[in-house]
């Protein structure tokens, strides 16, 4: 939380007169490169994956104006930041190529053959 800075402003949308009086829109700013939380390789990965959310100064921005309360918008923006970072740092396991077992292949071919014989027996033509 020490590395995160918040900026508030007036929000549009629902809220009536509350929108005109209260600064409920929250802009969360997080500088990835100066963060002590991540290694250099993680910082590089984050900047690559989140490049569309990082501005020219290298600051990751998360803007939230969904709730009427500034407090709830701050909480939601922190949750969004955590989700973004988790998604960017997630690396899927490499897929191991496998082949079907011989018994499975034989079982499939046997069932096809039985089905074929069943359909031949239904026909009225004699061969």
Beta strand %: 5-15%
Give the structural class. alpha+beta
What sort of overall outline do the alpha carbons produce when their principal axes are compared?
A: elongated
* Count of helical stretches: 4
Task: Estimate the mean pLDDT confidence.
Answer: 82
Number of E strands = 3
Largest sheet: 3 strands, antiparallel
- How far apart the termini lie comes to 82 Å
Helix/strand order: EHEHEHH
Computed CA radius of gyration, to the nearest angstrom = 29 Å
Side by side, the strands of the main sheet go: 1-2-3
The residue ranges in which pLDDT falls below 50 over 5 or more consecutive positions are none
Helical percent range? 40-55%
Which descriptors would you attach to this protein?
elongated; about 130 residues
Describe the model.
The N and C termini lie far apart (82 Å). The model has no long low-confidence stretch (mean pLDDT 82). The protein has a 3-stranded antiparallel β-sheet with strand order 1-2-3, covered by helices on one side. It is an alpha+beta fold and 127 residues long.
Describe how the helices and strands are arranged.
Blueprint: E1 4-9, H1 17-21, E2 25-31, H2 40-49, E3 59-64, H3 70-89, H4 102-122
Antiparallel strand pairs: 1-2, 2-3
Short description:
This protein has four helices and three strands. The longest helix is centred in the C-terminal third of the chain and has 21 residues.
